[in-house]
Amino acid sequence: MTTLQLALWAALVAAAAALGGCTRYRAEPLPPAAAIEQPAAVAWDAIELRASEIRHPLLPATTVDMQDGISPDEAALLAVAANPDLRIARAARGVAAAQVIAAGLLPNPQLSASLDVPTQDSAAAVTAVSLGAAIDLLGFMTRAAEKDAARRGLASVDLGLAWQEWQVAQLVRLRTYGVMLLDRALALATDQEREMGASVGTLREAVGRQLATRVELGAADVAYRSSVEARLTLELQRDTALVSLARMLGVDRSSLPPIQPTSVPFDGDSIGSRDAGAPALDSLLAGLGSRRLDLQGLRMGYLSQEARVRASVLRQFPQISVGVNRLRDTGKLLTLGPAVSISFPLFNRNQGEIAVMRATRAQLQVEYGARVNEARATIEALLTEVSFTLQRLENLRASVAAQQQTVDLYLRALQGGNADVLTYYNARADLMNRRLEAVAALRDLVELAIALETESGLRFVATSR
Fold first, then answer.
1. List of residues 6+ apart from 105 with CB closer than 8 A
2. pTM value?
3. What is the spatial distance between Cα 441 and Cα 265, in angstroms, rounded to a whole number?
4. Residue 366 class from Cβ within 10 Å (0-12 exposed, 13-18 middle, 19+ buried)?
């Protein structure tokens, strides 16, 4: 067997070995329709374990124990572990990870072979055979830049995912606190309904004994019906909030663990008061770029694009392939020598790709600056609203205390025959409304404070009254 034939056989064996190591196709079908009609039971033990193992730069480490219900902080970690949107985002991360693998691969060598069969053999000519192997050098030149771009791109995706986890966790905390405050308001409305129902029953018996008038009974009944309406409205709001919370955790309403009673943050001096004032804007903006994971992700994405620009500039240079050729011509002359292939960048010069990459880099630069300005403006606006809501909450609590004194005075006057029952029940209804307004203002304060946490990347130490 000649040297050329040996080389040809070796090339065939190498090609067969390479094909044998290729990844094979494997089908991944969707779940059957029965899984939609009858969803599997929630594996809370596995979710609880994953939640306890979460280490997030902005979320405090918390041991999740669902035996006594879930607190807002526990619900936040459970959402990070089980939220459907986050699971989709983590699956999408695999694309960026695959790009890192692709960027590190070297260009494949190229093998060429040809046969030239004589058609008019008048000089004892033989079949000419050529065998060549070559590899593109441009891939080696751009490999470092492409790997850098892919690695920074993956880091940008990871930071973006962490920022999305932070936002989901904060939203779940807010909704958990919202359920707790709605329960507080519902307890007030239920007590009011029970008291007014008892009053109606007492007055109905008194009317039968001619110890009270039907006017007094009518006033009590109107106040009772108003308390029932308030309780029903709050029950609807509470149930709607629970459904929304369950959806954020990726479970049905019936599978949602009970909410663990806990103190309500931001109620008092945790983020400021009229005396202490709201947090200073400078203190929230200091280090904002290092705390805001979305800004870090944008910065990493910009660096990734910078590497792509560098790779595209490198690709404008001539595409050079080097190799070796082994040839036997029709006269049985054997030759062996190097081969070089060069594409001359006379017309293209990769200018289109370079222009696109540079324009994308400029866009990312503008986007980063806009996001920084937006964060600053949002934090400043939230601080203004927090300061206003703190003052409003303080005023409402003072109003509740004053109205309670008024109701007590009307009750004593009514018992002494110096006030009419309609005025007394109107005063009680006004007291109830002010109490509910105070709870609603507290909900507004919690929403603003959590929004301020989310935008600044800071957690405030809370105290409760």
1. none
2. 0.76
3. 13
4. exposed
Among 327, 326, 329, 324, which Cα is nearest to 339's?
324
Of how many residues is the chain composed? 465
Q: Of all helices (H) and strands (E), which one includes residue 343?
A: strand 334-343
Q: Break the chain into its structural domains and give their ranges.
A: 43-59+69-116+128-456
CATH number of 43-59+69-116+128-456: 1.20.1600.10
What is the secondary structure of 58-120 as a DSSP string? SSPP----GGG-B-HHHHHHHHHHH-HHHHHHHHHHHHHHHHHHHHTPPPPPEEEEEEE--SS
Q: How far apart are CA 322 and CA 109, in angstroms?
A: 10
* Run of H or E residues at 244: helix 214-248
Q: What is the CA radius of gyration of the chain?
A: 37
pLDDT band at 404 (very low <50, low <70, confident <90, very high): very high
| Of the candidates 219, 165, 229, the residue with the CA atom closest to the CA atom of residue 424 | 219
The rounded distance, in Å, linking the Cα atoms of 73 and 260 is 10
How far is Cα 41 from Cα 304, in angstroms, rounded to an integer? 42
How far is 31 from 42, CA to CA, in rounded Å? 16
Q: How confident is the model at residue 272 (pLDDT cuts 50, 70, 90)?
A: very low
